[in-house]
Amino acid sequence: QVQLVQSGAEVKKPGSSVKVSCKASGGTFGSYTINWVRQAPGQGLEWMGRFIPVLEMANYAQKFRGRVTITADKSTSTAYMELSSLRSEDTAVYYCARAGVGYMDVWGKGTTVTVSS
Amino acid sequence: DIQMTQSPSSLSASVGDRVTITCRASQGISNSLAWHQQKPGKAPNLLLYAASSLESGVPSRFSGSGSGTDYTLTISSLQPEDFATYYCQQYYSTPWTFGQGTKVEIK
Question: In whole angstroms, what is the distance from residue B92 CA to residue B42 CA?
Fold first, then answer.
């Protein structure tokens, strides 16, 4: 059974960037997409974008376009999400999640990103 | 973007109760709907997909129904481990969107 192992917590200054990794353990991405979903403290779930390995391309939610870059390295079965121009509102738990048709069936445990001066 | 609206936003129930949560999409989504359960401090966990298909390993007390724009998650007999927040998610068209969540609390 594939597990998604995410990198550790980050503390960043406003205006900087953060890059979070997500490694598929016990398998590969295969034909699944890797999605990134974030959750601000006490808030709901928000989809940021996804990487489609078979097309080697990403697509993003309009809200994050221009600030987020999602990539993947098939050789290591690792996906990355980089968010730039960080502001305090970006403080959240960032999850990666595998999806086939579109529903997310395997989730990483989450990476806490704190943006603070 | 497709807006997903859940109701209620929270509810209190007792062990053994039947619980129903509804999710309405701003346009038809052709059963492209999933339900996720999230416990405090944990990642979400997939319960159902395609509106009514139970994910492997999920107890049969969870069921889903609906069509078009209106969908329902039912827990037939609430268990202590079911106290959590539940989210619907549409995957009919990107951006995938979630409902705001329904928190199920102990009465």
Answer: 26
Least trusted range by pLDDT, from A98-102, B53-57, B58-62: A98-102
Across the range A50-59, mean pLDDT stands at 93
- Summarize the confidence of residues B36-49 as an average pLDDT: 98
Residue of A nearest to B86 (CA): A44
The answer, for A47 touching chain B at a CB cutoff of 8 Å, is: yes
**A32 touching B (Cβ < 8 Å):** no
Q: List, as one string, the DSSP characters of A60-105.
A: E-GGGTTTEEEEEETTTTEEEEEE-S--GGG-EEEEEEEESSSSEE
A75 touches chain B (CB under 8 A): no
For B94, which residue in chain A has the nearest alpha carbon?
A61
pLDDT of A85 = 97
Q: Virtual CA dihedral for A72, A17, A65, A110, nearest 10 degrees?
A: 60
